[in-house]
Specification:
Elements: H1 2-18, E1 20-24, E2 35-39, H2 46-51, E3 58-63, H3 70-79, E4 82-84, H4 91-102, E5 106-110, H5 128-136, E6 140-146, E7 154-159, H6 172-196
Parallel strand pairs: 1-7, 2-5, 2-6, 3-4, 3-5
Antiparallel strand pairs: 6-7
Helix pairs in contact: 5-6
Length: 201
């Protein structure tokens, strides 16, 4: 945890010096108990942008290829990352997610499953975040990342109101439909902010 705090402190310094990062509604982040943080994904730096002012550790599900380069993989594990095999039914990653939620941790999931790379809502939502939230009986905090993080670029991170998924029997298509509504709400915020500011995709 000490290493994590040091890394987060360094990220805060870097953000203040080199990224014009603004964070809104961070008080909506749930500080205790299990929660899923569901964000859109435009940049490789989105994990840092969302986490740095969250005031709690977020364990991020990330694509397996990140962990193949051992120095980067080790650093990301210290940061709270754990691997998932995309486009497959990864039971190990699912078990890890439920384990973290059962321990009362925060789990970060990019709801599109991959970087949108400027395509925005054209990259559709995947159902995983909603499925985990319903089965673990925990809320989802939607997070809008506005702009693509980079040196001297403007980025805004906006936390949304917690969303509770009622317990029930859902098909994957129904989970995905709920996830898409959450993603559309996130991009409604992104589109509004881009219309009012100078944020690059």
């Amino acid at each position: 945890m000490i290493f994590y705090r040091i890394c987060r402190g360094l990220c805060k310094i870097i953000c203040k010096l080199f990224v014009w990062l603004k964070v809104e509604n961070k008080e909506k982040m749930i500080h205790e108990g299990p929660v899923i943080v569901a964000a859109n994904h435009e940049s490789a730096f989105d994990v840092a942008m969302v986490t740095v002012w969250a005031n709690r550790k977020i364990y991020w599900m990330a694509k397996e290829s990140i962990f193949r380069f051992k120095p980067l993989g080790a650093l990301f594990r210290y940061w709270g990352g754990y691997p998932v095999k995309r486009n497959s039914h990864d039971t190990g990653a699912a078990a890890k997610t439920f384990e973290l939620l059962e321990k009362g941790e925060a789990v970060g999931i990019f709801i599109q499953g991959t970087r949108a790379r400027g395509k925005g809502r054209e990259v559709k939502a995947r159902h995983g975040a909603v499925k985990f939230a319903e089965r673990a009986d925990c809320p989802i905090i939607p997070v809008a990342v506005v702009g693509k993080a980079g040196l001297f670029r403007r980025v805004k991170v906006i936390y949304g109101d917690p969303i509770t998924i009622p317990k029930g029997e859902y098909s994957n298509d129904e989970y995905r439909e709920i996830a898409q509504k959450i993603l559309d709400g996130i991009y409604d915020i992104v589109d509004r902010e881009k219309a009012n500011g100078n944020y690059k995709s």
